[in-house]
Amino acid sequence: MNRRTFNPDQIRQLEANLHVASVSDRTIQYKGEFKIHAVRENLAGKRPIQIFEESGFDLDMIGKRTTNEALKRWRKTYRIYGEEGLLNERRGKSNLGGRPKKDDSVERRLAKAEARIKYLTAENELLKKLDALEREAKHRN
Length: 141
What we know:
The protein is built from seven helices and two strands. The mean pLDDT is 87. The protein is mainly α. The protein has two domains: 8-87, no CATH class; 104-141. Strands 1-2 form a two-stranded antiparallel ribbon.
């Protein structure tokens, strides 16, 4: 994981770049149009470092490895989802490594709700019994 942090001056400098959507102290989010441009240029034979330099980025600030890693991710997204995948933020929405979400039917959701109600009812009964035992123990003392 990258340990680099940006200071306020670096953040302002990065935010001034036309290809940057937003910057935090640790991350840069690039505009989708830049990602598409970078992937096309890379597929045409340009190296990531050259693409970022020509786009006005200070490689000493963002890191030369960052350019390679970014292009690697963007090429993968481009290969799977096309240009639309680079235009839309997909972070946290990928099914590449996890289980696919199931389309729960009404019957399944109802069964889950009934099971939850049964569990909560049993929990309430247990708490009532515990409360009664505590009151009884206080009364004895």
